UniProtKB/TrEMBL annotation:
Lineage: Bacteria, Bacillati, Mycoplasmatota, Mollicutes, Acholeplasmatales
Protein name as catalogued: ABC transporter, ATP-binding protein
Species annotation: Alteracholeplasma palmae (strain ATCC 49389 / J233)
Superkingdom: Bacteria
CDD domains recorded: ABC_DR_subfamily_A (cd03230)
SMART domains named among the record's database cross-references: AAA
């Protein structure tokens, strides 16, 4: 059974439709890649699931519940802002305080591995290191859904492999991972289902193995072919 069911979801910013009648279900045990050109609506979709945005119309159900306290316990997502004055240790403290399922020992081990000091001001870290911190905080929670919006953009190619492996380590038959990225060729090895978005709509939602078998192309090649045409 789907853990997330989205029905007729539309999100407007003033008169602009960022999401246009989205219908999609996310299953446990799967890793979803959300791909699309700039402005396609990827972040708006992920922020809507994380309840950071309120839909204009439509519905999002998580584990059969409307978004709220229950979905907050089920979903862990990367934070992308609020870094201004805080130090790394403040984030560890807040996560421990707000989330009973946060494993601070696991987070501290990963911070050590990536040489991220607890004393550092987050705003003074490089963009890539901020992204690593954000991924570490998100995966140190024990939830059923993990959402990563562009987790690799500023990360160097060697660490990208490790960050992807960290994300992959959260994959179990019970967890759902949703990842948005422009780095299709680097992420497609871990993606089970590719979701292509354009102008606020989902134009493809298919198993990656099926795409490769049917087209003989990698997901990256198929994406480029499809977006060249439309
Ligand atoms: N807070 C906002 N106010 C007004 N318009 C917004 C806002 N957030 C997003 N939009 C608009 O909604 C559309 C979808 O934006 P969104 O950030 O979801 O796209 P995206 O697929 O994540 O793009 P990118 O790949 O560039 O990050 C864009 O046209 C964007 O300008």
């Amino acid at each position: 059974m789907a853990i997330i069911i989205i029905s007729n979801l539309t999100k407007k910013f003033k008169n602009k439709k960022a999401l246009d009648d989205i219908n999609i279900e996310f299953l446990p045990g799967k890793i979803y890649g959300i791909f699309g050109n700039n402005g396609a609506g990827k972040t708006t979709l992920l922020d809507s699931i994380a309840h950071l945005l309120i839909p204009t119309t439509g519905e999002i159900l998580v584990d059969d519940h409307k978004l709220g306290k229950h979905s907050k316990e089920k979903i862990s997502f990367m934070i992308a802002s609020g870094f201004e004055l805080s130090r790394v240790k403040d984030f560890i403290f807040w996560y421990e305080y707000f989330f009973e399922d946060f494993d601070s020992d696991e987070a501290l081990l990963m911070l050590k591995k990536y040489d991220i000091s607890l004393k550092e001001r987050v705003s003074e870290l490089s963009k890539g290191t901020q992204e690593k911190l954000s991924v570490i905080l998100a995966i140190s929670r024990k939830t059923e859904v993990y959402i990563f919006d562009e987790p690799l953009t500023g990360v160097d190619p060697v660490d990208r492999i490790e960050i992807l492996d960290l994300i992959l380590s959260k994959s179990t038959p019970e967890t759902t991972i949703i990842l948005s990225t422009h780095l299709i060729s680097e992420t497609e090895r871990i993606i089970d289902t590719a979701v292509f978005m354009k102008e606020g709509k989902i134009i493809l939602n298919k198993e990656t193995d099926e795409i490769r078998d049917e087209t003989g192309l990698s997901i990256d090649q198929y994406y480029k072919e499809l977006y060249k045409k439309c």
